[in-house]
Amino acid sequence: MGIQIKVPTVGESITEVTIANWLKNDGDTVQLDEIIAELESDKATFELTAQSAGVLKIVKQKGETVPIGEVICEIEPAAQKASSKPETKTQTPVTTSQPMKTTGGVKEMKVPAVGESITEVTISTWLKKDGDFVKLDEVIAEVESDKATFELPAEANGILRIVAKEKDTLPIGGLICRIEITEGAPAAQASAPSPVAAATASSDASYAAGHPSPAAAKILDEKGISTAQVQGTGVGGRITKEDAAKAQAAPTTKSAESKAQVPSGPPVISAGVSRAERREKMTSLRKTIARRLVAVKNETAMLTTFNEVDMKPIMELRSRYKDQFKEKYGVGLGFMSFFTKAICNALKEFPAVNASIDKDEIIYHDYCDVSIAVSTPRGLVVPVIRNAESLTFNQIEAEVVRLATKGRDGKLSIEEMTGGTFSITNGGVFGSMLSTPIINPPQAAILGMHNIVERAVVKNGEVVVRPIMYLALSYDHRIIDGRESVSFLVRVKEMLEDPGRLILGV
C-alpha cells in the first residue's frame, strides 16, 4: 500500500489550505523530499515535499480547499507499481453500461422563481416527449414569462411524465412534470440504435431542424428574417436565440434593402465588442481579508481623523543626501523610514494608539512592531517590522525592501505577518488623494499615506506652493479618545515637517 500524504499543520489558526499548484503530474515518479505541490493558506504559501520515493497518485486537484490532516495524495513504491502492471494488462474490460431500472423515487419539477415581479409563466415548448428518458441538467422545455424566455433543465435522470401541456399557464411553484428516477441508461443508449430508433431520431431531427425557439422566433420576426435563411446550431438543427441574433437578412430587391435599413430595435453589435464573463473561485487569502474587514466594521468603534503635511523639508533633505545614503548603505532613502521613525516617537508619547483590546483588558506595548501594507498579486499582506523604534533609517529601509520583496514572491512566513502593534498603508503610490483606511485587528490604529500634490498654502501670511500630503488616522474609539488621536497625528505632522527632530529624538 502506498504512503498517504496529508495536509500538514502550517499555523496555529489555519484550519484549511488551498492547492495552489501541482508541480508533478499524476503518475509521475518522485524522489524523497522533492517538492511536489504548493499549498496556499489565508496567510502564506507553503511547499509540499514527497515523504518517500515512488509513483505519485493525486487525490485532491488544483484549486480544491482541503482541511488540515486530510489526505492530499499517495505515493506508491516504484517496485509495487511495476509489479502491478502485468495484472492490469490481463484484466477483462468492464462494461460501464447498465440496464435501466427504476428506483421508485419520483422528482416533482415545479415552476422556479424566475424574477422578483414574475408571478406566472407559460409552457412554450416541450423539447422532450412524455415517457422519454432525460438526463440531469438536460433542457427539457422552454417556458416564457411576460419579460423573457427561460430554459427548464431536468432535475434528475429518469423517465419524463408531463403534467402541464404546451401553452398552459402556471403560477410560480406550480407542478410542471414528474421524473421517475432511474439507475443506468436505456438499452437504446447502451448499444447501437435499432433501425426503428434511428428512424425516430431522424424524424425528430427533421422536426427540430429549421424550427426556432420562442425567443429566436421573436428576434427573427423583429428583423424580418425567414427561418429558411437561418442555419440552426441547436439540438437536431433547432434555431437558437444566438443563431437568430447573428442572422442577417439577405434582401433581393431595393424595397427589401430600404426596409432592412430602418432600425426596428437596439443595434446588434456583431464584431469588435466582447460581453464575455468569467467566474473565479475566491482564494483563501481573499476570503480571509473579506471576513476580517467586515468584522472590523462590525466589532470596532472606528473613526478617522485627517491632517496634512508639508513634505518640502523631507524632500529637500532626501534630495540632498540620497546618493551618499545609497552609496554607504546599499538601499535607497525613501519616505517610509521618515514616517516609521515619526510614528514610533509619537507612539511612545501616546501609548493608547499602540495598544490593543483582549476581551475586557487593554494591552499596552512598550515596543513598536510596525505593520506595512504590501499589495501582491495574491492580495493585500501586512508584514511586520519588529522593534522599529530601535532601528536606524537604513535598517528600516532595508527591512521594508526585504519584506515587500518576499510578499510579492509569496514567500512570507506566518511569523513575519503576525504580532504588529500599529499599521501603515500607502495608497499614494497608486495615486490616492484621500482615503479612510480600515484598522488591522487586533491593533487599535492605522495611518494612511497619500499622494504628494503641489497645493497653494499660506505660510507666514503669504500664499506659496508646497508639496502637500494628506494623512488619515483610523482608530478604535473604544480605547483611543479624540484628543489622543488628533494629538498623535499632529505630533507626526510636526516631526515630518521638521525632520531634524527625528534625528535628535525630540
Shape: elongated
Share in helix: 25-40%
Would you state the CATH class of the largest domain? Answer: Alpha Beta
Could you say how many structural domains there are in total?
4
Q: Describe the sheet with the most strands.
A: 7 strands, mixed
Architecture (CATH level 2) name of the largest domain: 2-Layer Sandwich
Count of DSSP E strands? Answer: 27
Average of pLDDT: 82
Task: State the distance separating the first and last CA atoms.
Answer: 70 Å
What does this structure look like?
The chain is of the alpha+beta class. The protein has four domains: 3-83, OB fold (Dihydrolipoamide Acetyltransferase, E2P), CATH 2.40.50; 101-185, Beta Barrel (OB fold (Dihydrolipoamide Acetyltransferase, E2P)), CATH 2.40.50.100; 205-250, Dihydrolipoamide Transferase; 284-504, Chloramphenicol Acetyltransferase (2-Layer Sandwich). 28% of the residues lie in helices and 28% in strands. It contains twelve helices and 27 strands. Strands 17, 20, 23, 24, 25, 26 and 27 form a seven-stranded mixed β-sheet that branches. Strands 1-8-6-3 form a four-stranded antiparallel β-sheet. The radius of gyration is 34 Å and the shape is elongated. Mean pLDDT is 82; it is low at 82-97, 190-207 and 253-259.
Write the SSE topology.
Layout: E1 3-6, E2 16-22, E3 29-30, E4 35-40, E5 45-49, E6 54-58, E7 65-67, E8 71-76, H1 78-90, E9 101-110, E10 120-126, E11 133-134, E12 139-144, E13 149-153, E14 158-162, E15 169-171, E16 175-183, H2 187-190, H3 195-208, H4 214-223, H5 241-246, H6 254-260, H7 284-299, E17 302-310, H8 312-329, H9 335-349, E18 356-358, E19 361-363, E20 370-372, E21 374-376, E22 379-381, E23 384-385, H10 393-408, E24 422-426, E25 445-449, E26 452-459, E27 462-476, H11 482-497, H12 500-504
Parallel strand pairs: 20-24, 24-25
Antiparallel strand pairs: 1-8, 2-4, 2-7, 3-6, 4-5, 6-8, 9-16, 10-12, 10-15, 11-14, 12-13, 14-16, 17-27, 18-19, 20-23, 21-22, 25-27, 26-27
Helix pairs in contact: 9-10, 9-11
